[in-house]
Amino acid sequence: MPKALINGAEIFYQLDGTGDEVLVILNGIMMSTASWNELVHVYDKDYRVLRVDFKNQGQSQYIDEKFSIEMHVDDLKCLFDLLKIEKAHMLGISYGAEVAMLFALKYQHMLISLVLSNTTSRVTNHLRAIGDSWDVAAKLYDGESFFKLVMPFIYSSAFYENNIQWLKDREKLFGKILTREWFDAYTRLSASTEGYDITDRLCEIRIPTLCIASDLDVITPVSEVRMIHERIEGSRFVIIPDAGHASCYEKKDEFNTAVYGFLGTLKR
Predict the structure, then answer these.
(1) Which domains are assigned to the chain?
(2) Which end of the chain is more exposed for a tag (fewer CB within 10 A), N or C?
(3) CA 84 to mean position of chain CA atoms
(4) pLDDT band at 1 (very low <50, low <70, confident <90, very high)
């Protein structure tokens, strides 16, 4: 699988599909390129789909020093240049959507559109408290315990009622695959959002944008996503019902319909 040496570290990426336009997909904080395996086939018939692991994620290199979330923006710019991508659609969820907004503020000329799912333009006191609790859970260095403590925030009560065996299987998987190195890397990713607040700059984003919220999301509530929508002129706003923070998993069809429909309106 391809890796690129970018700004002193190896970045893992996957480029699939065909089409004249590129769709870049950016991970949530605990995700990786593999997290999109069940979704990428929806898009790769019409788009070249670029998935990327940020530094300290997935198969990209883990770095020890403290860094800011803005580091990922210039890493992406270098990857665009390496792959000769002049313009692309960019879809981000949660942490990945924060990076996408920062990318748009710095390199807007390289984007055709934005899809911002279950995200925020600032670290609220409530979000900081959730992040602090996850950091405590990470310091246990135990995958099953981490899952038990974190996932009730990410998945909705409705999803827990209807998918408990899947969740229990994922809990066991976390216990097997999450290493001490992963936990330390996650903690540095979490710390990278310190001071993050671009709310007052959102008006600078002037490309077609879709904002996706979920009505049961307690991490990035509807009100936070709506605030982004209201500040990006001409943006569209969709609320996925009966879903939590992980709307792309909980409501795959609704999520894909919203994204694919939006992208379809922009076809040249």
Answers:
(1) 3-122+196-264 (3.40.50.1820)
(2) C
(3) 23
(4) low
